[in-house]
Amino acid sequence: MSEETIFDKLIKKEISADIVYEDDIAIAFRDINPQAPVHVLVIPKRKVTGFDKLGELEEEEAGKYFQTISKVAESLGLNQDGYRIVFNSGRNGQQTVNYIHAHIIGGRQMKWPPG
Ligand code: 5GP
Prior knowledge:
This protein has a five-stranded antiparallel sheet, with helices on one face. The protein is of the alpha+beta class and 115 residues long. Guanosine-5'-monophosphate (5GP) binds next to loops.
């Protein structure tokens, strides 16, 4: 059993968040420390600790999770100008919350390579 994270508490509504989308599979909410005009996190309701553990989700669940990321980005009005999806994984990836989460980042020009 992995340790409880802030996102476990958020799903249980023990802490509040600015939720932009929710269904049976996933929930999307605004990042508390936005790195761009639009910065939303999308997590599956069934926990896996990181992108490296994506295989622990059922294939259908993982597929729906990915489709939700795409739909949420569209609903945020990001399709025309584009956006970036980031999964930080592990120490080198600078993952700070051990609950898989997609960052949807948009509303400004991105740079490459990332820091
Ligand atoms: P990571 O660095 O693990 O890829 O991203 C974790 C993200 O979660 C960070 O961007 C951070 O700002 C965000 N975050 C951490 N705690 C909270 C919280 O309590 N509420 C919300 N909405 N975002 C959080």
